[in-house]
């Protein structure tokens, strides 16, 4: 999968030699390797579960609120906010498909799911991450056009929707080789032992990229690193660097005396350099912070994946990476999907008002209906306007999880 592109088995292995004697007296010695079913101790596993559950909760709640705020308010459906909506959707996909599967894969030795989940999880993970990166590039380009070339026609909502469709098409095309190459296979002579009971063992399966040429995996890793990280980072840096230069020239223009303010603005507009409002500057700061945090959050994981393919680590080093360093790198990368709504609420007044409106009002009332015969507890959302209570929060969390 996108965040875990390795075949090596984790955990402390125990190797046993089994001798098979045939009828003619020939003996064959087979080495059977046993792994613990759970990779980590209870305390380490509990820390992983708490850490991943925390970012999963923030990711789901925050990005769902962002989607609701943009979709419920027509005035919020600007070009920039449509890209932010697309970013929130891709972050939701990261939270739904990346965080749970990665956590279970970290806790249990081998691949615990089916072959279909192996392919789909890798495809969806890669698509969501690619869509997030390309959306950040689209936001940077859109802001660049509006700030550096303000007299040119601004992108319309229709153009933004077409760009979003193109983003997802590119994400699917780039990750198609992953879906084709990913496969689940049983590792011969490798078994998992449950609770140190060698009478209670399971066959060991792995989900990995099975390219016809083993070197293709290294090439594909380098291509993904270039297309999903290096090139977008370069484009975003150039776009925001040009915007920064424009903002600096705008600040210099603002130093002019107030008496000549009107004349300077008129001359500036005629020269193609209108004054930039403080509100736009604040939005630019917000978007730069979103892009910067994305790049910093994913840098450790990309570095580890490149090192795992090209550095040639030995078995002990791989065990250390996959058991402790990879989980933290995954957590840091996925946490980026949960921090974006916090940034929007801090920098953007419209999003902040939307968050406050959701918290102060009671748009949904939770009505619990119990069906004991079927063992179903149904939570129905009924519109009402009252302060949000603890039962409402519990109801919403029940619906989400």
TrEMBL record:
It is a multi-pass membrane protein. InterPro entries: GPCR_Rhodpsn (IPR000276), GPCR_Rhodpsn_7TM (IPR017452), NPFF_rcpt (IPR005395). SMART domains: 7TM_GPCR_Srsx. It is found in: Cell membrane. The keyword Glycoprotein applies. Keywords: Cell membrane, Disulfide bond, G-protein coupled receptor, Glycoprotein, Membrane, Receptor, Transducer, Transmembrane, Transmembrane helix. Residues 62-344 form the G-protein coupled receptors family 1 profile domain. Its main location: membrane. GO terms for molecular function: neuropeptide receptor activity; peptide binding. It comes from the Eukaryota. The chain crosses the membrane at residues 45-71, 83-103, 123-141, 162-184, 219-240, 286-308, 328-347. One of its GO terms (cellular component) is plasma membrane. The keyword Hydrolase does not apply. One of its GO terms (biological process) is cellular response to hormone stimulus. Belongs to the G-protein coupled receptor 1 family. Receptor for NPAF (A-18-F-amide) and NPFF (F-8-F-amide) neuropeptides, also known as morphine-modulating peptides. Can also be activated by a variety of naturally occurring or synthetic FMRF-amide like ligands. This receptor mediates its action by association with G proteins that activate a phosphatidylinositol-calcium second messenger system. PANTHER family: NEUROPEPTIDE FF RECEPTOR 1-RELATED (PTHR24241:SF82), NEUROPEPTIDE RECEPTOR-RELATED G-PROTEIN COUPLED RECEPTOR (PTHR24241). This is Neuropeptide FF receptor 1.
């Amino acid at each position: 999968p996108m965040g875990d592109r390795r075949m090596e088995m984790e955990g402390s292995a125990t190797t046993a030699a089994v001798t098979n004697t045939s009828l003619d007296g020939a003996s064959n010695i087979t080495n059977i390797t046993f792994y613990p079913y759970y990779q980590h101790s209870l305390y380490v596993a509990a820390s992983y579960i708490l850490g991943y559950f925390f970012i999963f909760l923030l990711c789901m709640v925050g990005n769902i609120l962002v989607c609701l705020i943009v979709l419920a308010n027509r005035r919020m459906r600007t070009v920039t906010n449509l890209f932010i909506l697309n970013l929130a959707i891709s972050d939701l996909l990261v939270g739904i498909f990346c965080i749970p599967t990665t956590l279970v894969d970290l806790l249990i030795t081998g691949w615990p799911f089916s072959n279909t989940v192996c392919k789909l999880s890798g495809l969806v993970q890669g698509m969501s991450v690619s869509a997030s990166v390309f959306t950040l590039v689209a936001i940077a380009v859109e802001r660049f056009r509006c700030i550096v070339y303000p007299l040119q026609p601004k992108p319309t909502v229709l153009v933004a929707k077409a760009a979003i469709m193109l983003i997802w098409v590119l994400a699917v095309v780039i990750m198609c080789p992953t879906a084709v190459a990913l496969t689940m296979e049983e590792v011969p002579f490798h078994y998992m032992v449950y609770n140190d009971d060698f009478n209670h063992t399971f066959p060991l399966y792995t989900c990995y990229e099975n390219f016809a040429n083993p070197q293709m995996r290294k090439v594909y890793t380098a291509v993904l690193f270039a297309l999903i990280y290096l090139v977008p980072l370069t484009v975003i840096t150039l776009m925001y660097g040009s915007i920064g230069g424009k903002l600096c020239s705008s600040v210099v223009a603002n130093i002019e005396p107030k008496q000549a303010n009107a004349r300077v603005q008129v001359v500036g507009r005629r020269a193609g350099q209108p004054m930039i409002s403080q509100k736009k500057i604040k939005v630019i700061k917000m978007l730069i912070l979103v892009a910067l945090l994305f790049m910093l959050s994913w840098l450790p994981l990309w570095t580890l994946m490149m090192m795992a393919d090209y550095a040639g680590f030995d078995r002990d080093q791989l065990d250390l990476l996959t058991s402790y360093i990879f989980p933290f790198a995954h957590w840091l990368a996925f946490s980026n999907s949960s921090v974006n709504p916090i940034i929007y609420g801090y920098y953007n007044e419209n999003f902040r008002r939307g968050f406050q409106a959701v918290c102060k009002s009671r748009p949904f009332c939770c009505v619990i209906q119990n069906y004991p015969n079927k063992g179903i507890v149904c939570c129905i959302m009924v519109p009402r306007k009252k302060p949000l209570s603890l039962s409402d929060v519990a109801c919403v969390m029940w619906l989400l999880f």
